[in-house]
Amino acid sequence: MAIDRQALGFGDSARAVYAADPWNSRGRLYPESLSPTRSDFQRDRDRIVHTTAFRRLKHKTQVFIAQDGDHYRTRLTHTIEVAQVARALARALRLDEDLAEGVALVHDFGHTPFGHTGEDALHAVLEPYGGFDHNAQSLRIVTKLERRYAEFDGLNLTWESLEGLVKHNGPLIGPNGEGTRGPVPQPILDYCALHDLELATHASLEAQVAAIADDIAYNTHDIDDGLRSGYLNFEILEEVPFLAGLMREVRDRYPNLEDSRFTHEIMRRQITRMVEDVISVAQANLRDLKPDSADAVRHAGKTIAGFSDEMQATDKAIKKLLFSRIYRHPEIMRIRAGAARIVTDLYQAFMDRPREMQSHYWYGQIESMPEQVKARHVADYLAGMTDTYAIAAHRRLFDDTPDLR
């Protein structure tokens, strides 16, 4: 018996003309037949969720090392929060929610153990070979390193999902062919030679809402974790006028509220104001630009989904607060130094003795590879590690492992 796609909601007319069309994708590198029950973007999202890389996010640092406590965000919980905000924005703007969610779920796949500390350490040792970029590593994971399917490496995601992964923060190539944020990482260039992701254009609006959802989520939840850890307190938050206003609002309405509920009331208001700001800005840009297709969004020459000038100033003030009070706090810097040493030590050990990379699928041939190729495979192995696995590997190979508490 044939499946009625209209009954499954596939004929939904609520999607805007500028949204990505899940039934008219630009396709996959390796062609596949359509599913009778799921759109291509639904299938992408589902493939992302079922990966090893997604599961590993559970034990990768967001800000606080996992050993600090069970209630702090990890890369996984952060990713889920980003996906929730992205989906809310997509629904409000009449976009394809599955594509927005998929881009949000995959955006941090390439992060190393120990957060940006691990990335910085890995970039430093790989600098002679092109460095390390977590966004490029995400692309390597979903196009090469995940090995789940009989007919291809990676996940064989649609062009739109890969475009969103690579370009959610904007074009990578400027009008004169220059890199917009430095040289374009080689793994991205290598993939684009096979499957052009059009690096000089903006991404879909679905990818844009995933990008701004990332900012909203970590701005809010890093404050929450900072309060929980004691690196922040309510008095410190008064330094940002936007946060001070939210606190006055909550105190006026709930004068005797306990601290935990008070914190939550601030956070939920912060997310709501930021989400509403993005929706307002995007709607105004859409009215001005009148894009009649997803491609018109890509060629608009500007980001459509972003903060207003006022909220951009607030965003900068919050980031400045987080950097000075948490990310650069002396105790955090001490822990970061130890984490960087773990990553650096492991890299050198695996370069010197590749067979120490247990269960790595390049085990049998890596010793005869050119140094640059070997370095990239060592980076793949290291970047895939969780915090706990990296610590255990260091303890196995070295007598003195830094204390990250």
From TrEMBL:
- Could you list this entry's UniProt keywords, alphabetically sorted: Hydrolase
Keyword Hydrolase belongs to the record: yes
Q: Where is the HD domain?
A: 75-219
UniProt xrefs under SUPFAM superfamilies = HD-domain/PDEase-like
Tell me if Ribonucleoprotein is a UniProt keyword of this record: no
Give the domain of life. Answer: Bacteria
Record Gene3D superfamilies: Hypothetical protein af1432 (1.10.3210.10)
What the entry lists under HAMAP family is as follows: dGTPase_type2 (MF_01212)
Q: What family does this chain come from, according to its entry? A: Belongs to the dGTPase family. Type 2 subfamily.
The record ties this protein, via PANTHER family, to: DEOXYGUANOSINETRIPHOSPHATE TRIPHOSPHOHYDROLASE-LIKE PROTEIN, DEOXYNUCLEOSIDE TRIPHOSPHATE TRIPHOSPHOHYDROLASE
What is this protein called in UniProt? Deoxyguanosinetriphosphate triphosphohydrolase-like protein
Identify the taxonomic lineage of the organism of origin.
Bacteria, Pseudomonadati, Pseudomonadota, Alphaproteobacteria, Hyphomicrobiales
